[in-house]
Amino acid sequence: MARLGLLTGRFLNLRSDTIRVLTAARTYCSSSGASARQRVNGVDLFYEQTGRGDHAVLLLPGALGSARTDFGPQLKSLNKERFTVIGWDPRGHGRSRPPDRDFPADFYERDAADAVDLMKSLGFCKFSLLGWSDGGISSLIAAARSPDLVHKLVVWGSNACVTQQDVDLYNAVRDVSKWSARMRTPMEDMYGAEVFARTWAAWVDGITQFIKRPEGSICMECLPLITCPTLIVHGEKDPMVPIFHPQYLYKHIKGSRLHLMPEGKHNLHLRFPEEFNKLVEDFLEE
Question: Alpha-carbon distance 204 to 90, whole Å?
Fold first, then answer.
């Protein structure tokens, strides 16, 4: 592992780029569709639903993200005749508040359970998962723990462990007061400036806590348990998730595929929505 001192310059150069890809989603809006709240595991979860196809697909957003901010092009443009697409706000995210978001040691497992139970409560007995970043981590856990329910899995910008390099990347963007106003404003509009700053710092602490586990595992033990067809997508210019993470997923999820997007960054599904949506549709329809 490279020493922090040797990496500091790189992180400073990456900071603005990292913040940009983490927050660029926030200008997108979904197309109109049904929206409601569903009581699941003691909380009211907000969700949006579009399409009328037989294949149900749940979209799992990234850190502090929501269906509307993180998946506008997917809610709008994924084939509505073939898919029923559900976007949701995990507990403490967006419009699934209260409660406020917190980050106990099992917060990814909690999101995974909420996601599966939401779909079951909506009447879907089989569904696919599309998980971005934090949502991808929860998707990996859900697929491992509910193999009879998860039809197919697509993840991108996700990792099964935390290394010191990751911790340094997270800490480089901890202080939101150092973000540009353009980057902060959309999230402050959603949460309020004080709550956003506090919750973002709590997220950094929440994900860095895994460095204390053996091998920094978040969900490494889940990967061999995933039996559904799995597509791992990675942007080769992702400043937040080094390429060894998708390579690790590919190696340890039996029969999985790894698709690299040379110009993709962390938010590749928003930067290149047509390419991404076609890739996903083709995979889901196989």
Answer: 17
User: How many Å apart are CA 144 and CA 162, to the nearest integer?
Assistant: 19
Active-site residue among 55, 234, 245, 266? 266
Cis status of the peptide bond prior to 104, with omega within 30 of 0: no
The pTM of this model reads 0.90
Radius of gyration of the chain (CA): 17
* In the chain, beta strands by DSSP E: 34-40, 43-51, 55-60, 83-88, 127-132, 150-156, 230-235, 257-261
Residues in the chain: 286
Active site residue 259: no
Q: Please give the structure tokens belonging to residue 16.
A: 């603005």
**What local confidence, expressed as pLDDT, does residue 17 receive?**
55
Q: Which two tokens stand for residue 127?
A: 């569904």
Q: How far apart are CA 182 and CA 244, in angstroms?
A: 31
Give yes or no: 266 in active site: yes
Query: Of these residues, 133, 138, 139, 158, which one is catalytic?
Result: 133
Positive or negative, the CA dihedral 71, 76, 78, 82 is positive
Strand pairing class (230-235; 150-156):
parallel
Among candidate residues 283, 236, 267, 278, the one with its CA nearest the CA of residue 72: 267
Active site residue 133: yes
Alpha helix (H) residue ranges in 4-154: 4-23, 67-70, 72-77, 107-121, 134-145
Q: Which of 93, 114, 238, 269 is catalytic?
A: 238
pLDDT in tens, 74-110: 999 999 999 999 999 999 999 999 999 999 999 999 9
Distance of alpha carbon 36 from alpha carbon 45, whole angstroms: 8
